[in-house]
Amino acid sequence: MSNKFYVIATPIGNLSDISLRALEILKKVKFIFCENTLNSQKLLNFYQIKNSKLYSLHKFNEIKIKELVYQKLLEGDCALITDAGTPLISDPGQFTVNYLKTKNIEVIPIPGPSAITTALSGSGIIFNSFAFIGFIDRKEEKLILQLENLKNFIDLIIFYESPKRIVDTLNLISKYYQEDTEIIIARELTKKFEEIKKSTIKDLLNQKNLKGEFVVILPTKNILNIEKDLDRIKKRLNFLQNLNLKDQQILKIYNLFDSKIKKNQLYNLLKQEKKIK
After folding, report:
1. CATH superfamily of this structure's domain 116-219
2. DSSP letter at 85?
3. Which of 55, 59, 200, 266, CA to CA, is 20 to 30 A from 29?
4. At 68, is the pLDDT very low, low, confident or very high (cuts 50, 70, 90)?
C-alpha cells in the first residue's frame, strides 16, 4: 500500500506553535483521526482546513477502531492528531501505530510541541537524564517501586497531573521527599497564564486553587530512604506462604501484583521470603 499514516504533533496551547509541515500534511490527507472531533475542529477551522473527514480515536475506542484506520488507508492518506501535543505520549495512538506496522503501513511522525520538552527547556534545572512516567500511579506501592527503580539511574522524574489530582499527588510524594525539597511545576504551557516555577512541596501545598494542566519535575537525589515501605510491600505477599509455585504461576501473580516488576525480580523476592522452594 502506498498510502501513508501521519502522526502529527499539534499545539499544546498556543495555536501558532504548529509547524508549516504539519499544516501542509493536514491540508492534503483524506482522513484525520483525532481524540476529540470538536477540539480538533477548532484547530482546523483556525487554519481553514476543510478537505478532510474527521473520525474520533480515543483511549476508549482505539482497540476497536484501528481496523477502520486501516480500511481508510486503502482509500487515501490518513493523519492522527490529539487534543494537544504529540500523539502516543500519554495520548491515544500506540495500539493503532503498532497494528499498522504489522500491516507494513508507512508511518511518518511529524514532530512538534510536547509539554515534556517545553517544561524542561524553561525550567532552568541542570540535568543529564530524565524519565517520563506519564501520569503518576494512584497506588502508593507502585509509586514506591518507581522511585526505588529510578533514583539511582536518572536525574529527574517527570510526569503529568490534572488540577483535580495535583494536591493528592503532592501529598503522596511529600512522604518520600524532605519538606524543603524544590521541585519544578509547569502549568498552562504556551497559554496566557503560563507558569514554570521552582517551589518546595510544602509551599505548593499551602497554595489554594492550583489550576491548569501540570507537568511536574522531581529531582531524584532528594528521595528519602524508602526501604521500610519496600518491606511493607514484601509483607503483602504473605498470602503465598504455603504455596509451592511453578514458574507460570509466578508469572500470573506477577501480572496481578505489578506489571512494572520484572518477572525474575518477583521470583527472587518470593524465594528470598521463602514463599517458593
Report:
1. Tetrapyrrole methylase, C-terminal domain (3.30.950.10)
2. B
3. 59
4. very high
